[in-house]
Amino acid sequence: MHATATAVSPASESASVSRWTVDEVLALYDLPLMDLVWRAQSVHREHFDPNAIQRSTLLSVKTGGCSEDCGYCSQSARNKTDLERERLMAVEDVVAAAKVAKDKGASRFCMGAAWRGPKDKDLDQVLDMVREVKSLGLQTCVTLGMLQEGQAEKLKGAGLDYYNHNLDTDAEFYGQVITTHTHGDRLDTLEQVRDAGIKVCSGGIIGMGESRKNRAALIVQLANLPKPPESVPINNLVPIPGTPMAGNARLDPFEFVRTIAAARIAMPTSWVRLSAGREEMSDELQALCFLAGANSMFYGERLLTTGNPDVDRDDALFARLGLTAV
Ligand code: SAM
Ligand code: DTB
Ligand code: SF4
Question: Which of 135, 215, 276, 311 has the least CB density, counted as fewest CB within 10 Å?
């Protein structure tokens, strides 16, 4: 028998902290889809305008040649992908791309680097990028890998709004995807970001061969952080030729919708981002994701190294659904 729509709520709840268990999130996944989506949409409407979607544009400012062995990633030097490596971009080229993103209607510009973590000399150049992009009136986000002590404070000092650092998958499954760093390392960086007063962007990837229980556990690990991330990207694996995950079976799209809904319910005040994998999704599937509580997306023709829907297609989708960009 399925759980009823009202039977599932976090085990302990106080004004500021809610603690979810994996069983509770699994019970959400087990709801009939209509009950789950209805519940997610109800929670969503308590905290957000249901027709407003936040749009971030991504730019890979340093591409490929990464020392880490993340099994999904086109940019790991260990994976035999045909990606061209590129050095850290010049600040003026980054600013030019940010201006284009702003003119097209993005509110946040997110700069990604294929590093295990930044060296201090490279960080100085990223700090200039952050200052200049911010001065255009855009929110700023960077994703640079693991931070060492003092680096988060420098980013905060440059005016950084968000740091993206995904937990990516359940702690239990992590070692089957990545061996060059640990889930605990990711948590350490998230703590440094939080302590420096930068907003946290952290989510994960599904479709990597993990179980539904792993997916539920990832959501629990995000929701039960000392403070849930302000922004939670949910990525559908983009299978990249030359990576160990190139041949992964495609996840049932409704499982993706269920994951969005579970994230929305477990993290009611976070922005949940419908992230990688959108290019392959129909407009109808994306609409279902918004109904399930997604209220953010990547906007612009490229993610980091792979494609994203054309701006024209997204603008048409917004018009068809009556969505507004924030
Ligand atoms: N090196 C930094 C790090 O690992 O945090 C920043 C860049 S890394 C590419 C940023 C995120 O992109 C990863 O944590 C992962 O969630 C996502 N990602 C990378 N490759 C992906 C793929 N093939 N499909 C879906 N998401 C992917
Ligand atoms: C996130 O969660 N997804 C973005 C962003 N944060 C950095 C990256 C998606 C990358 C997809 C594969 C690629 O383009 O290389
Ligand atoms: Fe490197 Fe990040 Fe890709 Fe892992 S996900 S290989 S750390 S760029």
Answer: 135
- SS3 labels along 73-122: CCCECCCCCCCCCECCCCHHHHHHHHHHHHHHCCCEEEEEECCCCCCHHH
Q: Consecutive sets of 10 residues in the chain, 326 residues long: mean pLDDT of each?
A: 48 63 98 98 98 98 98 97 96 98 96 98 98 98 98 98 98 98 98 98 98 98 98 98 96 98 98 98 98 98 98 98 98
Taking the centre of ligand 2 as the mean of its atom positions, its distance from the CA of residue 303, in whole angstroms, is 6
Q: Is the pTM of this model over 0.90?
A: yes
295, 260 contact by CB (below 8 A): no
Ligand nearest to the CA of 70: 3
Instruction: Tell how far the Cα of 277 is from the centroid of ligand 1, in angstroms.
Output: 12
